[in-house]
Amino acid sequence: VSPDEEGICSGKYFTEAGLVGLLEQAAASFSMAGMYEAVNEVYKVLIPIHEANRDAKKLSTIHGKLQEAFSKIVHQQENNSAQFGKDLVGFCILHSVHGRVTFVPTSLGLTLPSGSCYCLVGFYGERFGEDVLEVIKDSNPVDKCKLDPNKAYIQITYVEPYFDTYEMKDRITYFDKNYNLRRFMYCTPFTLDGRAHGELHEQFKRKTILTTSHAFPYIKTRINVIHKEEIILTPIEVAIEDMQKKTQELAFATHQDPADPKMLQMVLQGSVGTTVNQGPLEVAQVFLSEIPNDPKLFRHHNKLRLCFKDFTKR
C-alpha cells in the first residue's frame, strides 16, 4: 500500500523507525521474561535493517545483547537439572464437572503448580463462597449422580507437556520443551475392580491427552481444551514405561557434567535396592518368568526384555 492514500499507514509505527522501535521493545520484553531464544529471533529481523543502513553503532549494541542472551541460554542449560526442571512451568487442568468449562491454566516463571492451584481455589472460593465450593483433587471420572446439586465443584489435575516421539527430535532444549505447547497429558492409575492401585499384574493406566485451541505461552493464561483422547495401557505396557523411565534416569545420572554422586546414589537405590517393593526385580518375576499364552502379548514381552537389556547395560 502507498502511504499517501487517504491516511493509510500514517501512524508513527508504520515507518521503518517505528518498526525498529517495536522490535527493540519486543526483544527487551523477551529478555526480561527469560525467553532468550525469542530474543535471537527478533534480532534476526532487525540486523538486516541496520546492515542496510550501515549503522555500525546499532549493530554493535545488538551483537552485545545477543552475546548476553546466548550466555544466559548456556547458563540455563548447565543449570537445567538444578533450577530449570519440570516445575519451572506449572500447568494444571481445571474443569467444571458439568462439562461446561475445560481449560489449562499455566503459571510462567518460578511458580510451582501447587501455587497456581491455591490461587484458583481462592479465586473460585470468592466467586461462589468457600462453603459452596468443593474441589475434586483426583483425576478420576466423576459420577455426577453422587454430587450435591447445591454445591459448585471444580476438578483440578496437574498435567505435563505431551510430545510424540517424532517431536522429541526437534524439542531438545529446555526452551523447546516448555514453549509453543498445545498438547498436555495426565495419567490416572486404575485396576479393573475399581481400586486405583493394585498388584503389578493388575495395574492399568489411563493416559488422557488434551489439545488446546492456542499454544502456550499465550496472551491469556487460560486456554480452552478443544480435543481430548484417552489411551489405556495394560499392566505389561505400564511396566515397560516404568522400566524405560528408570533407564532414562540412570542415563541422565551417569552422564551429568559435572557428576553428581548424590543423584546417582538416589537413582541406583530406587532402581536396584532390595527394599523397593515393585522394582525391576519384581517386574521381571511377574512378566518375564514365563512366555505369555496370548500371542498379542509377544510383542510387549519382547519389548520388556529389551528394556531390561538396556537397563542392565546402564
Automatic annotation (TrEMBL):
Annotated PROSITE patterns: DOCKER
Nucleotidyltransferase as UniProt keyword: no
Keyword Ribosomal protein: no
GO term, biological process aspect, one: axonogenesis
Source organism, top-level taxon: Eukaryota
GO MF term list: guanyl-nucleotide exchange factor activity
Keywords: Guanine-nucleotide releasing factor
Domain DOCKER: 1-314
InterPro entries the UniProt entry points to: DOCK, DOCK_C_lobe_A, DOCK_C_lobe_C, DOCKER_dom, DOCKER_Lobe_A, DOCKER_Lobe_B, DOCKER_Lobe_C
Pfam families in the cross-refs: DHR-2_Lobe_A, DHR-2_Lobe_B, DHR-2_Lobe_C
Family: Belongs to the DOCK family.
Protein name: DOCK7 protein
Protein encoded by which gene: Dock7_1
